[in-house]
Amino acid sequence: MTISPRAWAELLLLGLIWGASFLSIRIALNEIGPLTAVAHRTGWAMLILWAYIALRRLPVPQSAKIWGAFLIMGLLNNVIPFSLMAWGQLHIETGLTSILNAATAIFGVIAAALFFADERLTPRKAIGVTLGFFGVATAIGLSALTQFDIRSLGQLAVIGGTISYALAGVWARKTLGGLPPQVAAAGMLTGSSLITLPVAWMIEGPISLTLAPQTWAAIAYYAIIATAIAYLLYYRVLAMAGSGNLMLCTLLVAPVAIVLGAIVLEEALPLRAYAGFGLLALGLIILDGRVLKAIQNRAGGT
Q1: Secondary structure class of 187 (helix, strand, coil)
Q2: Mind listing the pLDDT tens digit for each residue in 147-204?
Q3: Distances (CA, A) of 242 to 4, 21, 61, 188, 270
Q4: Count of domains in the chain?
Q5: Collapsing DSSP states into helix, strand and coil, what is residue 151?
Q6: Is residue 35 pLDDT above 60, yes or no?
Q7: CB 3.0–4.6 Å: which of 13, 132, 220, 268 could bond 283 by disulfide?
Q8: Residues 65-100: pLDDT tens digits?
C-alpha cells in the first residue's frame, strides 16, 4: 500500500509521542512495578476513550466476535509488549532497548507480507526497512549491538514485545479495520485492562493511588498522550497505510528519544546521530517510493 502525505505526518507524530514515552515509563518504574505501570496505562486510557465515545454518541459493538477480537488485540498490542518492554527496561541499557524496539518495523513488514497480498515484501521495501533500522542503530551507537546476548532475558523480553506488536498490526487489519478508530482503541484497551488489572493485583499487590507527583505526571503522559491519543492515530494510520507501513513509526522512536534528551536534558547530540538520521531518512524515502518514481519518470522522459 502507498503511504499518503497525511499518513506520513501521522506516522511522524506517533514516533514523537512514543519516543517520549520511554522516559515517562522509566520514571514511573522508579516507584511502581512493570505490571502495575501497564495497568495504569491501559486502565486510564480506556476510561478516557469510553468517555469520548459517550460524548460523541458513537455506536458500541454488540457482537461477541468483535469483543473477542478486542481481547486478543489487547493481549497482542498492549498486555504482552507493554509488560515485556517495561520489565526489559529494568534490566538492559536504554540504547539497546531502543534498537531492539525499532526491529518492530522489520517484523511488521514481514508479518504483513505473509498475510496480505497488497503488502508483499518487495526488494525496495526490504532495503528501506533495513536502512532505517541501521539508521537507528547508528544514531544510538553501533557499539550497542555488540552487547546483544541471546541469554539475556531482558533482551529476549524486548524482542518478544516487538514480535507481538507486529502480529497485532496484522490482527487489527484482519478483524478491526471496519470500526471507528475511537471504538477500536477503546475496545482494545478494555480487553487489555480486563487482563492487566487482576494480574497486576495478584502479582504486585493492590494498585495504589498514593504516588509521588512525578510518578503521576509520568502516568498521565503515557496513559493519556502515549496511549489514548496515540491509539486513535494508530488505527487511523492502519486504515490509511496498512499494518506493515504502520510499524514504520517504531523506526522514529529512538531518534526522537535522542533529540528530546538533547533538548530537555541538555545532553550533547553526537555526530553519529546525524549520520543515523541521514540513513533513517534515506530508508524512509526508499520505502515511500515517490522520490525514486519521480527520478525514474524524469530519466525516462529525457
Answers
A1: helix
A2: 666 557 887 888 889 899 889 988 988 888 778 888 988 999 999 999 999 999 999 9
A3: 11, 24, 23, 18, 34
A4: 1
A5: coil
A6: yes
A7: 132
A8: 999 999 999 999 999 998 998 888 887 766 667 777
Number of residues written out for the chain: 302
Query: Where is mean pLDDT largest: 138-147, 240-249, 252-261?
Result: 252-261
Closest residue by Cα to residue 93 from 24, 155, 162, 174: 155
**0.90 exceeded by the pTM?**
no
* Range of the structural domain that residue 72 is part of: 5-301
4: left (phi over 0), alpha (psi -120 to 50) or beta: beta
What does the alpha-carbon distance between residue 24 and residue 3 come to, in Å, rounded to a whole number?
A: 30
d(CA 45, CA 185): 9
Local structure of 114: helix, strand or coil: helix
CA distances from 241 to 1, 53, 103, 109 (A): 6, 24, 19, 12
For residues 27 and 218, the answer to whether their CB atoms sit within 8 Å is yes
Alpha carbon 31 to its chain's center? 24
Percent of the chain with pLDDT over 90: 30
CB count, 10 Å around CB of 205?
A: 10
| 3-class state of residue 263 by DSSP | helix
Packed helices 123-140 and 250-264: angle between N→C axes, nearest 10 degrees: 20
- What pLDDT score was predicted for residue 92? 75
- Select from 162, 166, 298 the least CA-distant residue to 238: 166
End-to-end CA gap in the chain = 29
Cβ proximity of 35 and 28 under 8 Å: no
Residue of 226 and 7 predicted with greater confidence: 226
Residue that has been written with the C-alpha cell 541471546 in this structure:
150
Q: Which of 57, 76, 109, 287 is nearest to 176 (CA)?
A: 76
DSSP 8-state class, residue 31 = T
Q: Which residues contact 173 (CB under 8 A, 6 or more apart)?
A: 112, 116, 238, 242, 243
